Amino acid sequence: MSEFWHDAGCVFHPVSAPDYLPETQLKQLQLHRLRAVVRRSYDHVALFRERMQGKGITPEDIRQLEDIQHLPFTVKTDLRDTYPFGLFASPMNEIVRMHASSGTTGKPIVVAYTQEDLRVWSSVMVRCFAAAGLDRGDIIQNAYGYGLFTGGLGAHYGAEALGATVIPISGGNTDRQIMLLKDFGATAICCTPSYFLRILERAPELGVNLRDLPLKAGIFGAEPWTDEMRKRIEPEANIKAYDIYGLSEIIGPGVANECSAQDGLHIFEDHFYPEIVDPETLQPVPDGEEGELVLTTLSKQAMPMIRYRTRDITTLYKEKCSCGRTVRRMRRIARRSDDMFIIRGVNVFPSQIEEALLAVEGTAPHYQIVLTNDGTMDDVEVQVEVSPEAFSDKVSVMEGLRKKLSASIERVVNIRVNVRLVEPNKIARSEGKAKRLIDNRKK
Amino acid sequence: MKMHQLSMFLENKPGRLSEPCRLLANAGINILTLSVADTQQFGILRLIVPDWEAAKGVLEKAGFVVNVTEVVATEVVDQPGGLATILEIIEEVGLNIEYMYAFTFRCNDKAVIVFRFDNNDIAVTALQAKGISVVGGVELYERARQ
Ligand SMILES: [Zn+2]
What we know:
The complex is a heterodimer of chains A (443) and B (146). Chain A is of the alpha/beta class and 443 residues long. Chain A folds into two domains: 1-337, ANL, N-terminal domain (Rossmann fold), CATH 3.40.50.12780; 341-439, GMP Synthetase, Chain A, domain 3. In chain A, 30% of the residues lie in helices and 24% in strands. Chain A has ten helices and 22 strands. Chain A has helices at residues 23-44, 46-54, 76-81, 115-131, 150-162, 174-185, 193-205, 227-237, 350-361, 395-413, and strands spanning 95-100, 110-114, 139-142, 165-167, 188-191, 217-220, 240-247, 252-258, 265-267, 272-277, 290-297, 308-317, 329-330, 335-336, 341-343, 346-348, 367-373, 378-385, 418-422, 429-430, 433-434, 437-439. In chain A, a hairpin with a 4-residue loop joins strand 17 (367-373) and strand 18. Chain A is globular, with a radius of gyration of 22 Å. By secondary structure, chain B is α+β, with helices and mostly antiparallel strands. Chain B has two domains: 3-69, VC0802-like, CATH 3.30.2130; 71-145, 2-Layer Sandwich (Alpha-Beta Plaits). Chain B is built from five helices and seven strands; from the N terminus they run βαββαβαββαβα. Chain B has helices spanning 18-26, 52-61, 82-92, 120-129, 137-145; strands at residues 3-11, 33-38, 42-48, 66-77, 97-104, 110-117, 133-135. In chain B, strands 1, 2, 3, 4, 5, 6 and 7 form a seven-stranded antiparallel sheet that branches. Chain B starts with a strand and ends with a helix. The A-B interface holds A 386-388, 391-395, 398-399, 402, 420-426 and B 5, 7, 9-11, 37-39, 41-42, 44, 46, 63-65, 67, 69, 98-99, 116. Zinc ion is lined by residues 259, 261, 266, 321, 323, 325 of chain A.
């Protein structure tokens, strides 16, 4: 496939050209790539081939885009079950990078990239930055974590490909983040929205007014967030806050991004084919209706994903956007089909709490999140079982542990929680696994 | 001479303290002394028993987290100034007291104070050098029977 759009002669960033493809051309391109990726997966990934065979279909049966509905779904546990390399469709000598999830329980999820995959990844990140109005000359402070997590390196290479100046500061060390925002004059920051809230709160304590800095844009992602957070962030920091969407299983950050209209995220459909299905029946729902987002990587080589169930609930729509992009938009992810909860306007996953506890203790203790409401405000209590390793006969040590756990959770989810230490085995378990969330709020 | 102390994590709820005591009583284990350090949320129960290994087994079987710590028990005359002497000695060698608690025996004008120092060995040497009687576990048990 020739990259026929490269000299589109537009005023926008040239790499963004596919965002403006006419629908017929886009569909041609999607079909061409879909057939190729299905063939590739069928030939090289046993799990996919077996599922295709189970349904009695072959790659030749994909004749039009709608035929994607006949293909089997892929789910997160497929990645765990085939750990580490079972879903790779390229030999190791073509794979140039791996990333992995920071899974707190069991095996992590491993993803892989060929040289071409990395080029595509950078190009979609460029399109994200371009949609957010960034260009050569911008200074991008990249506060996503570098390492196995896809966020840091994904945003990093995208920002370099854009021609912007990257400050690869990685996550954490809020005081230093604020110092560099000020001293280096970053015009954009990439981080989780909850971490930016932390920066917002800390800056005044250091005598820094973010409103006075050159910072003009935030590319916030890696967790769901809300318009309420945007309404708080934008005036307080005098920036535009853009939502970026992505997931490691698909590529990392760079699947979709908001444009200047800040009204939904444009999906880079030429690489990631979106469908919305009813999470119960798994039947497709039409544009404009809510359901679970399912993504197929149209150009991924090392680890293609066919109809990957993201568990993210959203809506697709193709109404013309004021920015001129023609690719479809998706509504901001408001919820997931699994166990996220919303507390004081903040979306929280039990897994985030777990990671925060893990960060303190080294192992994830048994815990339970109890939500209550006294009639005015939601309250979160995280009950943590005291493990033999963590137990000390000194009150100061135990009290210190409680405070550390509480601070760690606050750092991760940006809400104040009350941590209660409880005796071991006091948290009820079913099938060996504790129920993580008890919601006692009156509905 | 040091002795073993059991400590347990307890939630600060009515009735929580009685359970370990009842468990030990049922197992025929005598509690020489106990102290509870508590906060609003939780408490740490510290126990001295004649047979700490058996007691630990009983408590752990019931699901409690039990730590074994070495502590130093000293005997002082149960009157004003008894404790001050010990504190002075400890201060002189530059040690810190993590915590302490005292108990007295029936028919005895001496008190036993249990300490956890940040370095028990140095503390024992220093106390004994100044003629303070450091009591061992067996000795304490014998005395409690008197
Ligand atoms: Zn737009």
